[in-house]
Amino acid sequence: TLGARGELLSYHRGRISYTRSFASLDDRLTRGGPLARDVAGHDLSFDVDTDSRRPVTVRLEGTASWDDAGGWERSVELNVGLRPANNWSIRFGPE
Fold this sequence. Notes:
- With about 100 residues, this protein is mainly beta.
- The protein has one domain (about 1-90).
- About 0% of the residues lie in helices and about 60% in strands.
- The chain has no helices and 8 strands.
- A hairpin with a 7-residue loop joins strand 7 and strand 8.
- The protein is elongated and about 60 Å long.
- The two termini are about 25 Å apart.
- The relative contact order is 0.17.
């Protein structure tokens, strides 16, 4: 796994990560039965956050996964938070 994260002076934060998995034989795929081949794959993810102390916050997340057998998956999420007062917090986004 390779990754990096950082925070700006404005308290905006970000992270990126890449993971490479190698082909292997695994009995968990068959729940303890015979060994099955698990193909090699890649995972890439990132997220960016605005300053959580602000009245309006935004978080953007993304992931991409693919394997050597041709399978793939991608997703992007956007979350918006509202804080009209210090004791109130409202968030919009997928759960």
